[in-house]
User: What shape does this take?
Amino acid sequence: MLHYIENEAKARAAKASTQAIIENVSRRHILGGALLASGLVLAVRIAPAVAREPLKPYPTGAEGMSDKTVNDPHIFIAIDKSGDVTIVTHRAEMGTGIRTSLPMVVADEMEADWSRVRLAQAEGDEPKYGNQDTDGSRSMRHFIQPMRQCGAAMRQMLEAAAAAKWGVDAKLCKAKAHTVVKLDGAGKETGDSIGYGDLAEAAMALPTPAIDTLTFKTPEEFKLMRKGETKIADLRNITVGKAIYGADVRLPGMKFAAMIRPDVLGAKIKSYDASEALKIPGVEKVVEIEGVYTVPRKFGQLGGLAVVANTTWAAMLGRDAITVEWDLGPNATYDSAAYTKEMSATAAKPGKVIRNQGDVDAAFAKAKQVFSEEYHAAHLVQAAMEPLVASARIKDGKAEVWAPVQSPYGARKDIAEALKMKIEDVVVHVTLLGGGFGRKSKWDFMIEAALLSQKLGGEPVMLQWSREDDTRHSFYHTTSVERIEMAVDEAGKVTGWRHRTVAPSIVSTFAPDSGYQFPIEYGMGFVDVPFDVPNLRCENGEAKTHTRIGWYRSVSNVPRAFAVQSAVCEMAHKLGRDPKDFLLELIGPDRKIDLKAGGFPEDFWNYGEPYESFPIDTVRLKNVIRLAAEKSGWGKKLPERQALGIAAHRAFASYVASVVHVAIDEDGTVRVPEVVTAVDCGFYVNPERIRSQIEGAAVMGMSNALYSGITFKDGAVEQSNFSDYSIATMGNYPKKVTTIIVEPQDASWHTGGIGEPGVPPFAPALANAIFAATGKRLRNLPMGEKVT
Assistant: This one.
């Protein structure tokens, strides 16, 4: 996602080839570690291409593959002499299972035995491995085709090597279960076979097949993709405590540190007294870390004081004993409650027009009735179960950093700049992530650790954030006001739609703050509303930032879906209509939305994908609505104070609809006995991971809807820990989540995202269910655990 921000303008203007090339890199001096002694090593190199560049035709047999090429080169796979397969995983694992699902694609295409596949985590090195930002629900979307190409090429090279050994035509050789078997003229197995390990060296000397000569498996031939219950590769180590997370790193002579940082963005140290801290047993020294105060700050560190000790606990006790006087700066006046009122006033006035179709003003002037409501969303913090942590060491002119990071190469570049070192002298090692949700795509915590090690003369040091640090010093999901207005004629038809969004923009992290959002944010549930309304306008009001704004799972889709889908249900109630039927009616006829006719902006952002291949398809959206409604028993009679609510949303090129069953206790506590979610993510690989992500999305969606909210007073975050920043827990969470996975219908259904699309529909479906059960309409996120 970061690359989308920094390179969006370049990408739209660039002209580049869409050629994909597979290379045999076995003899290059660029491999190390697990691959150094391997026999056959292939790499897929994919040339840069703009998002709207026409796609080439599918290779024969490439059913379901996305031909979109992206600047994500060098995915390495190796076979050693024993036959074991090693795949270097270049994306970070944070619970999504991407370290499993991508290798599954390769293993399936190359007929590898999954039990003989080993994984090696790549360090941060995009020139070698390609884009490494694990964000935007795009790992599968962008890498299914390259991974299938790698697997198919390796299979064909192994078959060719076996053919040469046997002195037969390659057509008489077939890869099967980690071996190549010989066929007779009738295509039957002769009983002769050679294992992959015995073929690797010979295959290494063969030319790599051209892309257009590759053959791919059909879904009927898959053995791993879409089949069975392939668990994540790290599951056992995670379960028995052997997995290495950020806090598990240990280096000889390691010191441990904790920091005190300013609670107000941009505050600077005026003076401090560390004398009491230095009296605490184990505390060795206090070191000042300079902050980045220039605007924009990007992912620069906040600055503050680091307490270095022989244990993390001693460091934290020392940190708490320091007294600091701060120069708070201009953001000390930030009050989120007052700011919401300012945003509401802005939303009541015309804003910058982003999408315009028909004559909206005329539609409202002629309307029989007008609907107008606002929907508010508080800031959110990612609150991953694993707080931020990084370890650093500088030795012999080289810097190494170990961290649970979503974007290791971006971190590597900025660490090198902060240390004033060459990038080739900096190494970033990626550990497992105990959750990320976007926070670990910002590497300020890693820069802190690197700078601290440098100030300690290169000594290895682990800098551990506490939960309070995580809560008070994050990059927050933006707060917002969404104003939805509808014009309705005498026949009860919606003839006009106006949506005004007012929210501080994440672009303020990267560029001077204009107060307005930008195409990536506009493309998340705002301008892409899929309704068949003849007069439609989307406007953006100005809102300046007073804290750090960053990615959060599903990003702007969260407040937009909440507003749009809540408003649809509200209007249905006013018209005496069934909410599901009214939603389907608004979506309208089967079609792929015409961007030009719909008044979309020329720079419409479609999750970085070419619109021709990833259109807004109302057939697929309506299908998930109908599937979820049918499976949930929509319309069935429920006990008093129980009801169903429905919502649907397209995000990250996938379509999701959720029906939430709500039950309200006598004291008003909101409970969710069941959620039914239908998801259409196109060509998919691992159903076990899809269900896992949808289940997690339901829990996170309930947290967003009922519990979680960050507020500011006098420029500082008022919350500190899970005691006052609540999430759904075992005491109250969705008890049953039923997931319906839509089977792709044809090769035009490219792979969509799955990590984020399940979150947005939950909150509005829950709000709609609460209204149906109690008659009370809740329009603020979080809504609160009890309906009073």
In short: The domain at 336-381+475-781 is CATH 3.30.365.10 (Aldehyde Oxidoreductase; domain 4). The radius of gyration is 27 Å. The longest strand covers residues 654-664.
